[in-house]
Amino acid sequence: MGLAGYYQKFVKDFSRLAGPITSLQKKGKKFVWDKKCEEAFKELKGRLTSALVLKIMDPNGNFSVVTDASGEGLGGVLLQDGHVVAFESRKLRVHEVNYAPHDLELVAIVHALQVWRHYLLGKPFELKTDHLGLKYIFTQPNLNARQRRWLEFLANYDFDINYIKGKENRVADALSHRKHIAAIITLRTQFKDEVKNELTNDPYYNHVKTSLEKDPRDKRYDGFKLETDGILCYNNRIYVPEGKELRNKVMREFHDAPYLGHPGVTKMMADIKNQYF
Question: Where does the record place the Reverse transcriptase RNase H-like domain (predicted)?
Fold first, then answer.
């Protein structure tokens, strides 16, 4: 498993392209790598190794945020002068599943602004939603504590809310309906080889590897998986052996990438922990 959990936000229709592969992860489904999976794998590799499909952010440009929510997740698109700057989506958390539709739509907005804080804070922008009631959320007299907390957060931003019809909100809507699971991709060959070279002498890796080879169903290692090339993953996150050189390389990769916008140490570390352990 590779960096798809991060890079999916940079490729349009990622979940559709990855569908044949991610469907193999469904509980109780037999793992059969067929022609559709192979074609999806090749297409994903091509998309992920080619130039980014997004517009490079212009600090002086005009921003728009489009959000949507569904019973499965939240979706959002960051636009600048009509061009996509970033995609964002996540599945609903356990406590959010029972939220009313208008609360879910509000959560989608809050989540999007949290993710793109480094782009939007201090700049006027347009917020587009297909939930008409949100246009008047700031004038509602009866709000619960949770809603008031969200509005206090939104008050930090300078935006106008505009309503768009649901049929015009296809991208955010599609993102909100996708399942938030990583697709299977390969690491860059050089970095993968470096990881494998370090794994041989890594005590933690050897301990887990030996245990899994002895009993793949050992409950102590639920979530762990050994890839065919020897890479160790935990809940789709790649294990990076202890040692400053490799771990510093991961940090440099996230810090120096121009399309991340240098969001700060906290956000960068959260992104890294979402992909590696």
Answer: 58-157
